[in-house]
Design goal:
single chain, about 90 residues, mainly alpha, about 75% helix, rod-shaped
């Protein structure tokens, strides 16, 4: 359960930051084109959709990384790990 929560937190952080940056960029372009600083509803919906897509992808990725890291820690040392002095 803990790896899923960790993956969820990291994915949520990434999604919020990227969605906010996407909305800010859309508003900046809108301001450059029209000269007014309005936040039309489609931009907010697009930001929400971007956030959801990024969250889903990052959650899947982070969960996969957490699981593979856990299995690497659980597995015994490989023969090649003894060849490196920093391993």
């Amino acid at each position: 359960m803990k790896p899923n929560l960790k993956a969820c937190g990291q994915a949520l952080t990434t999604a919020i930051v990227n969605a906010a940056l996407a909305v800010a960029l859309m508003l900046l372009v809108e301001f450059a084109i029209s000269g007014s600083f309005q936040a039309p509803a489609p931009y907010l919906w697009a930001g929400l959709l971007i956030g959801l897509v990024i969250f889903a992808a990052q959650f899947w990725r982070q969960r996969h990384l957490c699981r593979s890291c856990k299995t690497d820690q659980d597995s015994p040392a490989t023969p090649h790990s003894s060849l490196h002095s920093d391993a």
